Every structure is written in structure tokens, then in C-alpha cells.
Amino acid sequence: MTKVVGPDNLATTTWFYQNDGLKGKPYFSLTAEQSYYTGFAPNSSGQISSTDISNWTFSGGSANTTAHQLNVENYDNALKNYNADADWDVAVNRSLSSAGAGDVVVAQFMIDDGASTQSKLYLATSDQSRVGLYAQPSGTGHSLSLLTKYKTSTEITSDVLFSDSVLKKYLLYRLFFIGESSINVRVWEKGNPDNFAERTITSMDDNLSWGLTQSVYQGTVWLDAVFEGEALQDSRTTYDVITQWDSVSGGATDIANTNLY
Predict the structure, then answer these.
(1) Tens digit of pLDDT for each residue in 116-131?
(2) How confident is the model at residue 172 (pLDDT cuts 50, 70, 90)?
């Protein structure tokens, strides 16, 4: 991922393929007037910075304790949130709920491979409405479902986005507020955007601000690269890939039968 920010806070963020066939090619670009960004860079002592502490509320333990600490995961700084208990007491919340109509929120996150680990990542309002994701153990990994809640009603998590593929992989979660009452949710695997799911939720609250929350139940989750801003342009690039040579019999020309070596 690369991000270029101008003096007027106009930010262009681009994500790139990481697989062999398309490695290094851009697949998604977002231009927005940036209002907030953190990559959870450590302070001089290697701990959560005072800036991040002032922008987030930590529950189930203070910042820089076992519940909430910085961790280098996949060569990247991330906020590691850990809960040893079978409850939802450990959470991190944006201290300022500022996202609304015309805005976009992007968060990079990851879930551990614990057999009991559950996690929720969502935007919430002051009247308890929620839109986001719910992860729970499934098969050999974790399933990921859409999470919605309107005011004081019960959470709905029946819409499964990924059935058994969220196993300690960084995923990107993007919410775009189409209007005052509609939200587009898109989640994809970092570096492999062809593995994605997308939904649009309508009839949500008008004229309310939304703030990001990540919570964990008996396990570990990571949060990284949180971005908020007024969306100006959102573009995706797709490619047609033709395999000219491979090492598999049949289909494309076998590498052993060429003069490439």
C-alpha cells in the first residue's frame, strides 16, 4: 500500500496485488480528504504513542498492557488486542465519532487462529446502531459475517461473507457512506482482492456520526492502518491474465519445453 498526502490533506491511497501473476500491480485506489489516519507507529519506547492513546478508548485493560499493546505482525506495526476470557470486555474504540454522509472509513485487521476466538469490527452510533463484521470459528479457520444492528434491536449476523477463509490473514474493511441512511461495506483479503465480499445496507440512522470499534472474545486480534475522510474518488482495476508457460502438463506450454533457461 502507498499513500500520498498533499498539504490540503488530499490523500490518495493505492493497494497492490501480492500474488505471483500480478505482483506490484495496483488494484484499488481511494482519493479522499483525509481527516484521520493512524498506522499505530510506536513511540520512542516502542509503546503505543500518546497521540494514539488520545484518539482511542481502551476497555478491559489500559493501553500498553497485555490487553492492548503494539506488535509487529507481517513486518508491519499493529495494535494487538488480547482477551484471555470468554467475554467481550476487551475492546478499542475511536474516541471521536466523526464519520457520516459522504465519508469513507478503511481499517486493516487480522484474527488469530485460536479455536475459540471471536471478534467484532464495526462502526457504531450514540444510539447503539452498528454496521460491521463478526468473525467466529468455522471449519479450519474463521467465518466472517456482516454485522448490523438498528438502535436497541438485536445484532444480526446471519449474512456470511466468508465461510472458512479468515485464518490469520490481513483483511481490509471499507465502509462508504453513500448518503445519510445508506452504507456500502466491502471487505477483501489484502494482496488478493479477488477474494472479496460487498453489501449495501439501507435505512440506517440519518444525521448521526459513526465511530470504529474492535472487540475480541477469548483470543487475539490486530488492528492496523485506520483511515477516515471525505470520499472523492474510489476506483478499482482488474486484469485479464494469460498464462504463457507453466510447469503443469497440458494447457499452457510447459517451461521444460521452452528455451527460457
Answers:
(1) 999 999 998 888 889 9
(2) confident
Q: Which residues pair with 76 in a beta bridge?
A: 73
Residue 189 in contact with residue 196, Cβ under 8 Å?
yes
pLDDT of res. 250: 66
> Do β-strands 90-94 and 141-149 pair in parallel, antiparallel, or remain unpaired?
unpaired
Other beta carbons within 10 angstroms of residue 67's beta carbon come to: 21
Q: Where are the alpha helices (DSSP H) in the chain?
A: 50-55
- What gap in Å lies between CA 60 and CA 242, rounded to an integer? 51
Buried b (16+ CB within 10 A) or exposed e, 121-136: bbbbbeeebbbbbbbb
What's the confidence (pLDDT) of residue 44?
A: 92
Query: Distance between CA atoms of 46 and 68, rounded to whole angstroms?
Result: 13
Q: Into which CATH architecture does domain 37-231 fall?
A: Sandwich (2.60)
Q: Which residues contact 30 (CB under 8 A, 6 or more apart)?
A: 12, 13, 14, 104, 106, 174, 231, 233, 234, 235
pLDDT digits (tens, 9 = 90+) for 84-102: 999 999 999 998 777 888 8
What was the pLDDT predicted at 194? 84
Grid coordinates representing 248? 503443469
Q: Which of 228, 220, 191 is nearest to 105 (CA)?
A: 228
Q: Specify the pTM.
A: 0.87
Instruction: Give the residue-averaged pLDDT of 176-201.
Output: 85
- 240 burial (CB, 10 Å; 0-12 / 13-18 / 19+) is exposed
Q: Which three cell numbers stand for residue 136?
A: 467466529
